[in-house]
Each structure stands twice: as C-alpha cells, then as structure tokens.
Design goal:
Layout lengths: L2 E6 L1 H10 L1 E5 L8 H15 L6 H16 E7 L5 H6 L7 E6 H4 L5 E5 L1 E3 L11 H4 L2 E3 L7 E7 L5 H14 L11 H14 L8 E5 L7 E6 L5 H13 L4 E4 L8
Helix pairs in contact: 2-3, 3-7, 3-8
C-alpha cells in the first residue's frame, strides 16, 4: 500500500489548499464516542488498580492526559473508491476524494500513521493494550471504512518522546525518586501540578499540520459521481489554477468504463 485517500466536502478541500495544511481534530469531535471511552476506561483501570502509585504509574497518568487532551487525528482510507464512502461523505453531491502518497506522510512534522484494527468487543482489550494502542481500535461495525488514522501530538513526536520529556522534568524538579511510594491522593495532586506546568490541560479542538514544503503532496482529486456538471467545471478550474491533478467525476456507476 502506497496511496491513501480521504473523502471530504468541497469547502474543506478549498480550505486545505488555501492554508496548505491538514486539519486534525480532537477525538471528542468524533462521531463515535465509544472510541474515546476506551481510553478513559483504560485510565480508570490504571488508577483503580492500586492503593498507591509509582513513578511509572504517574507517568502513565500524565500520558493519558496527553492522549485525551493533546492528541489529534485525521481519518483516511486504503480504499480508492467505494459506494459506501461516497454516500457517507456525500455533502450534497459535491464531496471530493483526495489522494496522497503514504510515504509523504512521514515528511509531515510530528505525524504518524496507524492502520485501524476492527474488533468485536473493544472493551475486552482495554486491560492488555496501552493507551496509545487503543487509539487505533474501532468496532467491526465500521470495518467498511478500511481506515488509516493519522495522528499528531502537541509538542511531542509520540508517546515515548513525551514519556522521556516528563521523566526529565521529574528528575529536574526532584520528584522522580521521592514519588515512588506516594499515596494515591498525594501523587494525583502532583500529577495535576506537572500537567499544568507542561501546559497539557488545554483542550483546543483542532490542530493544523502544514504540508506546503512537500512537492506535489496531493496526487489527485476526484469528484463525487452524483455531482452536477456545472460543479465539475468549477472544480476542474480550481484544480488547474492550483496545479492539482484533477481526475474528473468518479465513474463508479458508469457503464462500459
């Protein structure tokens, strides 16, 4: 797999081109609240599993705050086209499909891609999977999406990078050793202080990732197969003006393609 695709509204496409940026969103804006609930359930199990909390558990608590407050995602798909996706992302028959090379994703700052795993009962894997692993889990009811999830962390390259940053902070503040055997209330207070100090408690809902430094980032654009012809001409003109390869309307329903 080298190409991934995203179905979006025409308005979102224009905004993306004008800003040369991808708009990532916080998980609380997702349609399926079940996904964020998995992470929150994992956090609760971590905290409730002991009367005292070690430094490592304190780190996990802070990481949970990073994930729930400072992790942003964007959904793509491995499918180049499908009836379901055109109908779900219809936008009054004016939606578009954009294509990028997965290799170019690695050139974006602090962005990585995860292939979503679809399972029967996600809640059963909460205990064995890490917070970070849970961000790529969805219920099988969504398997038709064949999703590739892009994600980015505020300030950090990833969870391990964040963990090292927090460890360094704890060492510098003299807390790393002293907190090893602290009680749950005491460590919770300390965690809140660290979260505030690291500015991790802001809840911005969107995050922009610039792609303008990557030549020919958008490989092609295709229009909804149900779009009117006048709109086809408008989109063609817009793509030509911005040097984008326009494939025209989808021929998914055309006989003798």
């Amino acid at each position: 797999m080298s190409k991934i695709y995203r179905f979006i509204s025409f308005e979102s496409f224009v905004d993306m081109i004008m800003k040369q940026s991808l708009t990532f969103v916080h998980p609380t804006l997702w349609d399926d609240p079940y996904e964020l609930n998995l992470i929150e359930s994992k956090f609760k199990k971590t905290i409730d599993s002991s009367d005292s909390i070690s430094t490592e558990r304190a780190l996990e608590t802070i990481l949970q705050q990073i994930i729930t407050n400072k992790l942003y995602c964007q959904s793509w798909t491995k499918l180049n086209e499908s009836d379901a996706l055109w109908r779900i992302y219809n936008n009054n028959n004016t939606s578009v499909r954009i294509e990028v090379d997965l290799n170019d994703i690695s050139k974006l700052e602090n962005v990585e891609d995860l292939e979503v795993e679809y399972v029967d009962d996600p809640i059963t894997i909460v205990e064995k999977d890490s917070f970070y692993d849970l961000i790529k889990i969805k219920r099988k009811a969504f398997a038709h999406e064949n999703e590739i999830r892009l994600l980015t962390h505020y300030k950090f390259n990833g969870t391990e990078d964040a963990k090292e940053h927090i460890k360094d902070y704890l060492k510098l503040s003299g807390d790393y050793e002293s907190n090893k055997n602290s009680g749950i209330e005491e460590i919770s207070t300390e965690v809140e202080r660290i979260i505030s100090k690291l500015n991790l408690n802001q809840k911005d809902k969107t995050f922009q990732v610039y792609y303008g430094h990557i030549d020919n980032f958008i490989k092609s654009v295709m229009l909804n197969p149900f779009a009117p012809e006048w709109f086809n001409g408008t989109l063609r003109m817009f793509c030509e003006q911005n040097g984008i390869n326009y494939l025209g309307k989808s021929e998914l329903y055309k006989l003798n393609k």
